[in-house]
Amino acid sequence: MSSSKDPEQEIISYRRSLHRIPELDFDLPETRAFLLSVLEPMGFEIRDFGKAGFSVFIDSGKAETIAFRSDMDGLAVTEPEGCDFGSEHKGLMHACGHDGHMAMLLGLARKAYKNPEDLPKNSLLIFQAAEEASGGAKIICETGVLSEHGVSRIYGMHLWPGGEENAVYCRAGEFMAGNSMLTIIIEGKSVHIADYSNGRDALEAGCIFVERAYKFERDFPPDIFRLLRFGEFKSGTASNIVSEKTLLLGTARTYDKGTFKSIISGLRKIMQDIEKETGVGFSFEYAEGYPPVINPKDLYEQTKAVLTDAGFEWRSPDIPYMHTEDFSFYQQKIPGLYMHLGMGGNVKLHSPEYVLNEKTLARGTELMWTLLTDDHKG
């Protein structure tokens, strides 16, 4: 796919084409087809990972290879009418900026294709499925592609609403949280509300549990970054019947296994106490999700120096984010740095009102190009 557009407009055009065809999780046929229609004519080595995505190897004949990753999946969000390039897939939307991430990486491939003499190292571009839910990064890591190409480090980047436009937000150490889904079931005894003292109220027990769990979490020292919240609470069947069963669904987010274990053991202790006090029974399950994103200090310092020397504004948040990211799976294999690129505004991620600031796209490609063409050895 050739284009006479200037580079900035070309990247915007890529983004708008991708915005029209949001798809979910691993099921991304139209997204893949569009990406490949741009990339295949460049003649780079493309490796298909099946449902998980594909990689593009740009061989410059150099000893070092660095990688860049973009996520591809959209969200089950209905886009409001009025966008000239709005979603053509009912009930689906790119409401998290992944269309922009892909467009920026296509821009990098195009720039490498047009300027091969400027490349002091090889690059591996990873287009990855299922960041939002199923962890496509883990599957790609298991293919061995990083070791096969001798990748020395990998970069990931997210367009970030609310951040200063075109400023880079990054933090050494803890940056984005690891998560675990919590499922708690409370079994009580149902009786008529007039005889509530003869029952065992699962709703009341659930209320007591949530209150104590939140107090327990608040009592952690402020320098231990963590989060414990419940987003779903279902209980009871009628207004005049003591609830027999309560369902609680929540999440624990932490940056180290010690804190996670402390939260789990603390919740178990609260459950045991309430069981003794009220006679209800608790069952508790948890499923660990993505590991935390931990940015290596040396790679952080190296990248900060390169980008600030190139004129990028750099911001280091005092506290990490409690969002999650499956980029952490790459970091478990090789050194990797995850960054946010501010795009201004105050829109919310995963919202129907999400609007991407297209003025940041060319700057994102330029950021990756700066890292690719830097002659520092990783």
Give the SSE layout.
Layout: H1 7-19, H2 29-39, E1 45-48, E2 53-58, E3 65-71, H3 98-114, E4 122-128, H4 136-142, H5 145-148, E5 151-160, E6 168-169, E7 173-176, E8 178-187, H6 202-218, E9 226-235, E10 245-254, H7 257-278, E11 281-288, E12 293-295, H8 297-309, E13 314-315, H9 328-331, E14 336-342, H10 361-373
Parallel strand pairs: 3-4, 3-5, 5-14, 6-13
Antiparallel strand pairs: 1-2, 2-4, 6-14, 7-12, 8-10, 8-11, 9-10
In short:
The protein has ten helices and 14 strands. With 378 residues, the chain is of the alpha/beta class.
Radius of gyration based on Cα positions: 24 Å
Order of strands across the main sheet: 1-2-4-3-5-14-6-13
> What is the distance, rounded to the nearest whole angstrom, between the alpha carbons of the first and last residues?
33 Å
If helices are DSSP runs of H or I spanning 4 or more residues, what is the number of helices?
10
Please indicate the count of domains.
2
The CATH topology of the largest domain is Aminopeptidase
| Share of residues in strands | 15-25%
Shape: elongated
CATH superfamily of the largest domain: Zn peptidases
CATH architecture of the largest domain: 3-Layer(aba) Sandwich
Give the SSE order as H and E letters.
HHEEEHEHHEEEEHEEHEEHEHEH
Write down how many β-strands occur, each being a DSSP E stretch of 2 or more residues: 14
User: Overall mean pLDDT score?
Assistant: 96
- What's the main sheet like? 8 strands, mixed
Low-confidence stretches: none
The CATH C-level class name of the largest domain: Alpha Beta
- Can you give the helix content as a percent range? 25-40%
Structural class estimated from helices and strands: alpha/beta
